[in-house]
Design goal:
The chain has 168 residues and is of the alpha/beta class. Helix content is 38%, strand content 15%.
Length: 168
């Protein structure tokens, strides 16, 4: 098992942090039980620029809680605080700079946000621990089969030193 999927952080920053943190602790317990190295989280809706300090505080609290055997992902999703600019993802990673806090790179999310996935890959590659294979079309944002959209999947996977074989 690669990780525990969760909706943690996929809420308004105005939401009280105590119940969210309790759910996070439960997800970490599940990760430990299943020997899963990751817990997926998000970075709150509409938090930037005014809520940046609170997002950093809440994420740091989670980093401090996580034991050495479990790391957690941060996922950039349309609508969360980082959805409008990959540089905000980079800002979080640079400011929290912890091996316990790593990115999930999702091609389609960048396309749907109107951004260039290849340029964003170059920014986020040092912080990426997982790649979510999903593609989309610029303009409509429609999710399409991997490689048929504008996610530049082949180029990025090649750069990530992943050999993709369509014959298997």
């Amino acid at each position: 098992m690669i990780g525990i999927g969760s909706p943690i952080g996929k809420v308004s920053l105005a939401s009280h942090s105590s119940p969210i943190f309790e759910r996070f602790k439960l997800a970490v317990e599940f990760a430990e039980f299943f020997d899963a190295p990751f817990v997926r989280i998000f970075s709150y809706y509409e938090a930037f620029p005014n809520g940046r300090a609170e997002v950093l505080r809440r994420l740091q609290e989670k980093i401090d809680y996580v034991r050495s055997c479990v790391r957690y992902f941060f996922t950039k999703t349309k609508g969360t605080s980082t959805a409008s600019l990959a540089r905000r993802c980079l800002d979080l990673h640079q400011n929290l700079d912890s091996p316990k806090f790593r990115a999930v790179f999702d091609f389609a999310n960048f396309v749907q946000a109107g951004e260039d996935p290849l340029a964003n890959w170059q920014l986020l590659k040092p912080y990426t621990a997982h790649i979510h294979i999903k593609d989309a079309l610029h303009g409509s944002g429609k999710v399409v089969p991997a490689g048929e959209g504008d996610g530049q999947i082949a180029e990025i996977l090649n750069d990530a030193c992943v050999r993709v074989t369509m014959d298997s």
